[in-house]
Amino acid sequence: MTPFAIIIQIAIGGLLLGGIYALIAFGLSIIYGVSRVLNLAHGTILMVAGILASWLFFTLGINPVFVGLILIPIFFAAGAAFWRGLIKPLISKSRLEFVIGSVLVTVGIMTIIDDVTVFVAGPTLRSIPSSTPSLRIGQIVISSNRLSLMIVLVVITIALHLYFRKTFIGKAIRAITQDMTGAQLVGVDISKMNMVTFGIGFSLVAIASVFYDLMFSIGAYMGFPLTVKAFTIVILGGLGSLVGPVIGGLILGVAESFTAFYLSAKWSPALSVIILLIILVLRPQGIFGKKE
Amino acid sequence: MTEKIASKKVAIYFFPILLAAILATTPSFLSPYVISVIFFLLVHLILGQSYDLMGGYMGYVNLGHYMFFGIGAYAFSIFLVRGFSVATGLFMAIFVNVVFSAIIAYPIFRLRGDYFAFGTLALIVLMEILAFNIPSLTRGPEGLSLPPGYFLYQAYYIALAVALISFFANYKILRSKFGMALQSIREDEEVAEVMGVRVFRYKIITFATSASFAGIAGGVWAWYLSYIDPPTVFGLNVALIPIAMVFFGGTGKLIGPAVGVLVLGVLEQVLWIKLTHFHLAIYGAILVLVGIFMPGGLVRSRLFRRL
Q1: Model confidence pLDDT, tens digit, residues B14-34
Q2: A112 vs B296: CB contact, 8 Å cut-off?
Q3: pLDDT at position B40, please?
Q4: For residue A94, which residues of chain B lie inside 8 Å, CB to CB?
Q5: Residues of B in contact with A259 (CB under 8 A)
Q6: Beta bridge partners of B49
Q7: ipTM over 0.95
Q8: Minimum Cα–Cα distance from B60: chain A residue
């Protein structure tokens, strides 16, 4: 394989990984933007979704696409219920109590989910195996599985982009992220929007988990490191930007893939933090952020 | 009026010293297991109080506070393994942390509020990875084994002394000009700067101070355990525990961390003993309930005021 072909190969893998990161980070970003909650349990939700996805795949024997379609409404409802039951009681409290309360609640939920999952599902890693033929484009070998994943990712990204540009809910979410009071003044129902945003965030995570299962594997306790990575992507991409986390996720995915290949795989998890620190020194508001 | 203030001042000094004196005598009649539990509580008290210096008084929630603990543990262990004395080890635990916090302050304080909280959390992940991947220094995943010896009691007394010192340090700072500056930063940083508070200076000093205490805690903990590896001292699953304890007890209040550490620490031990499964889940459930119903912490709740 020519060096060029290798680079393309790695880049494709990196974009796929980055796409997964982008979905996770985007969900986290809108959840934070709308509810101002630090959702420390975000990665853990992915972990649960991933294990559930793997289980569904093996018990029902259906195409991963359908697994995803089953998970989306489940997790949407879970997200809405999460906000309604656990966060809503906090909004009447002071700012300090809100932050502390949301940290305690999300850390608590994370601990509960981790513990219960380990008990129910055991410590074995789960995944969705796929054996598909490989295609050759010139010198590049790509499994048709990866190719279809990439296409689906692109479709989802375009769909999200259109959703947030054209629909009322999408615009409402952007409005709340920019100015909560202003949004309320023009008639946005904050309670409903919070539930919807959490729902969307959780659904995106569920979709990402299916991808994750297809490409890697999921196990208990993997959630929190992913949450931290997602947050670094959000900071990297820029405060208050909706495009930021997506681009940040893609950049990180590609960077991690190249680092894993040219340097060594053990350093790639550190990459997100190192890039973050560098960006903070050079451009503190993130790539697409606006100075607050 | 002056009698009330005077008596409160006496109480603040009297009770902790009395308690410390009592705890100092306990090793002679309590089992090593109980002593190790108290030791655990003391270490977490140091962690909690040093966290609250920045988190509660200055308003910068350092979710990655535990990294100073880990760095202290490793600094101590690395020097001990190479034959230096315990005193040197503890000194290095402080020194390395001061240097590290001074350097990392420059990029990390570009973040504010919630973003600062997550930036610091990311730092702890970085520390764990560094600990894994620099085996020449840290022996990587196989961990560092300290020279053999059982040092529970010595570590216990050092922890007791440091816990007492950090408690009084927090008390003094809270009531001093330094403390007022910190609280002004918490309330409104821009206004503080305009009023002449050299904000960045205070941030760095507080950062380094809280790092130092956490570092000593890490050093004595490593001394007691005689073996450390990256997940033990940088693991995300334990990293938030001291902070959760402070939140539970009440952040920003002098006795908040103490109350939180005591209640949650004892609770964790009881759950660990009594339940085979789900003790962490119950622990998590308690955190959730406190988060919803008493987010200001135990110290601020109506329950507490009735005591």
Answers
A1: 888 888 888 888 887 888 888
A2: no
A3: 92
A4: 296
A5: none
A6: none
A7: no
A8: A96
